[in-house]
Amino acid sequence: MTVFAMLLAAAAPAILGDPAQEARAQSLDREIRCVQCQNEPIAQSTADIAGDMRALVRERIAAGDSDTEIRAFFRDRYGDFVLFRPPFDARTWALWAAPFLLLGVGLAAVTTTRRRRVENEPPLTPEEGER
């Protein structure tokens, strides 16, 4: 059990002295994607690079950077992919619009299929209509 506690302590970044700053760091840790794991925030990742990124978040907070500046730093360094919520701009508009476009295409396909099905059905005979 002591070995596990030592490993956990070694993997955890240094906690900031100010609780408000630590809360900011933890919030940012959940918003920034691990570049090695790719589907985990750095807060949950056990990869070495994620530990370095968590430490870097805390260093930049301690240096006085704002959350926006820290996100911009990681975005400049690793690209839009590193942020779970990339900003809306000329480069990412398709990413933000894709769910709506796909929903529209799906609704159009369902509507077209239903219309064709109704048009191709033969009319009911009087015997069928009585049932």
From TrEMBL:
<dbReference type="Pfam" id="PF03918">
    <property type="entry name" value="CcmH"/>
</dbReference>
<comment type="function">
    <text>Possible subunit of a heme lyase.</text>
</comment>
<keyword id="KW-0479">Metal-binding</keyword>
<dbReference type="InterPro" id="IPR005616">
    <property type="entry name" value="CcmH/CycL/Ccl2/NrfF_N"/>
</dbReference>
<keyword id="KW-0408">Iron</keyword>
<keyword id="KW-1133">Transmembrane helix</keyword>
<protein>
    <recommendedName>
        <fullName>Cytochrome c-type biogenesis protein</fullName>
    </recommendedName>
</protein>
<keyword id="KW-0349">Heme</keyword>
<dbReference type="InterPro" id="IPR051263">
    <property type="entry name" value="C-type_cytochrome_biogenesis"/>
</dbReference>
<dbReference type="GO" id="GO:0005886">
    <property type="term" value="C:plasma membrane"/>
</dbReference>
<keyword id="KW-0812">Transmembrane</keyword>
<feature type="transmembrane region" description="Helical">
    <location>
        <begin position="93"/>
        <end position="110"/>
    </location>
</feature>
<comment type="similarity">
    <text>Belongs to the CcmH/CycL/Ccl2/NrfF family.</text>
</comment>
<feature type="domain" description="CcmH/CycL/Ccl2/NrfF N-terminal">
    <location>
        <begin position="6"/>
        <end position="130"/>
    </location>
</feature>
<dbReference type="InterPro" id="IPR038297">
    <property type="entry name" value="CcmH/CycL/NrfF/Ccl2_sf"/>
</dbReference>
<keyword id="KW-0472">Membrane</keyword>
<dbReference type="GO" id="GO:0046872">
    <property type="term" value="F:metal ion binding"/>
</dbReference>
<keyword id="KW-0732">Signal</keyword>
